[in-house]
Amino acid sequence: MAFSFAGASNPLMILMPNIDRNEIRKFEEPTAFWWDKKGEFKGLHDINPLRLAYIADRTALAGKRVVDVGCGGGILAEAMARHGARVTGIDAADAPLVAARSHAETSGLKIIYRRTTAEEMANASPRSFDVATCMELLEHVPDPPSVVRACGHLVKPGGAVFFGTLNRTLRSFLLAIIAAEYILGIVKKGTHTYRRFIKPSEIDRWAATAGLLHQDLTGLYYNPVFKRMGLGGSSAVNYLMQFTKLEENDTLNNALL
Ligand code: SAH
Predict the structure, then answer these.
(1) Is the CB of 220 under 6 A from ligand 1?
(2) To test ligand 1's pocket by mutation, which of 27, 48, 154 has the most ligand atoms within 8 angstroms of CB?
(3) pLDDT tens figures, 21-42
(4) pLDDT under 50: residue ranges of the chain
């Protein structure tokens, strides 16, 4: 793997890709489970229609070039491709990409899948996408600001960037870790680490340095026991965010005036 540095917060990132091997190992397992809708990634399947609705309501997808950063087995990538998007899915681990490629083929969908990081891709092909999506990834990387900035570099001016992750609150600790991993067992133990959870204000701060203008913050509610879910309401646990990449000659201050 080539080294990456686009937007890295830590100078060591120039020599090391923004990847946590322990995090990657969690996803480097047999490939079949990604598409088992009742399996380990049930939660991602359950909330996927909400994520898709959030994105599709805010940006046109048909014919657009979309990069899905940390695409995993392609759950969101496929949904966007079905909406007519020309999707490139990137992931740092091999196993999810094997599952993603084989499932896209079975589904008859043309999706490009590549093993790389957001930073590498942003270095190689800046401003080459209309839309970037980055769902349930930021809480797994050592330097999330660097990924946020790389997503900003990946899209063209005027393009849309979407993030989805877990907030760092007492409620998210109790629900996303204690309840989901230890009481209900719907997420594998050790999948999430509380200190890696991210506050929306932190994403706002990192995004601003990449010329990304905050458009929206929406809470995503998910109750796996009663299979109830929806958008809106509190963003104390899961949330989605939308940003717009400013035009080259625009500054964040001008845009905010
Ligand atoms: N975005 C998908 C999958 C989320 S699981 C979805 O929401 O459906 C997190 C994925 O991020 C895993 O597939 C893991 O391999 C990948 N990943 C972890 N660190 C990464 C990094 N630094 N760059 C790119 N992908 C990474």
Answers:
(1) no
(2) 27
(3) 888 887 887 666 899 998 889 9
(4) 1-8, 11-14, 256-257
Tokens matching residue 137: 């990834």
Per-domain residue ranges for the chain?
A: 34-256
Q: Which atom of ligand 1 is nearest to the CA of 96?
A: 13
Token digits of residue 100: 């993603």
Q: Does residue 117's CB lie within 6 angstroms of at least one atom of ligand 1?
A: yes
Please give the CATH superfamily to which domain 34-256 belongs.
Answer: Vaccinia Virus protein VP39 (3.40.50.150)
pTM of the full predicted structure? 0.90
**If you take atom 12 of ligand 1, which residue's CA is the nearest one?**
72
From residue 71, give the alpha-carbon distance in Å to each of 26, 41, 91, 158, 182: 14, 13, 6, 23, 26
8 Cα: distance to centroid of ligand 1 (angstroms): 18
137-157 burial code (b ≥16 CB/10 A, e <16):
bbbbbbbbbbbbbbbbbbbbe
Amino acid at 165: T
CA of 230 relative to ligand 1 center, distance in Å: 23
